[in-house]
Amino acid sequence: KMSTIVETNRFRIRYFVHSDLPTFTAYRQNPEIALYQSWDPTTYNLEKATQLFNSMQNLPFPSNNTWFQLAITFKEQPSTLIGDIAIHFISDDDAEIGFTVSPQYQRMGVATETVGAFVKYLFNKLGRRKVTALCDAKNLASCTLLEKVGFEREGVYDVV
C-alpha cells in the first residue's frame, strides 16, 4: 500500500513499502549522505533496512516514543523513492524530525518543499506544539534549509 500522508505541488510523503528498501539502502551506504547521520555507511545493508521497515509495520501512526521513516517521492512517480523523512513522535505535543535526500535529487528543492509541508502537517493536522530537528552545525545546507522552513537555531554543542 502506498498511502500518501502529505502531498505538495511536486512531491508526496508516503508510508514506506518493501520495494523502497534497495534504494533506501543504496543511498544510506553513500559516505557523503552518511557524513552527518547516525549510521555507519560501511555496515548499513538491506538486512538493516528490512529490520527498520519491519519494526514500523504494526505500529499505529502516530505512536508516541516511536520513530517512523516516511518515503519522499515525486508526485507523478509515487513508486520512485528519492529521499525520506524520519519522524520521532516524542509525546502528544512534541516531535523531532530528520531528513535525507538521495544524492541525484539534491539541490532541486526536494527537502525544502517536503520538510516545510510535513512540519505544517505536524502542527495543523496532528496537533504537535513543538517540532525539533537536530542538525550537525557543519552541515550548512541542512541548517540553512531548516531555518528557511521556519526552524530557529537554539544552540550549538560539541559531541565529544
- Rg over CA atoms, rounded to whole Å, is 15 Å
Q: In percent terms, what proportion of residues is strand?
A: 25-35%
User: How many beta strands in the DSSP annotation?
Assistant: 6
* Separation of the first and last Cα atoms: 42 Å
Topology order in helix (H) and strand (E) letters: EEHHHEEEHEH
Q: Write down the overall mean pLDDT.
A: 90
- Structural category is alpha+beta
Strand order of the largest sheet: 1-2-3-4-5-6
Number of helices: 5
- Please bin the fraction of helical residues: 25-40%
- Inertia-based shape: globular
Major sheet description? 6 strands, mixed
Low-confidence stretches: none
Notes on the protein architecture:
By secondary structure, the chain is of the alpha+beta class. It has helices spanning 21-28, 31-34, 46-56, 110-124, 140-148, and strands at residues 4-7, 11-15, 66-74, 77-89, 94-101, 130-132. Helix 1 (21-28) crosses helix 3. The termini are far apart. 28% of the residues are buried. The mean pLDDT is 90.
Summarize the topology.
Blueprint: E1 4-7, E2 11-15, H1 21-28, H2 31-34, H3 46-56, E3 66-74, E4 77-89, E5 94-101, H4 110-124, E6 130-132, H5 140-148
Parallel strand pairs: 5-6
Antiparallel strand pairs: 1-2, 2-3, 3-4, 4-5
Helix pairs in contact: 1-3
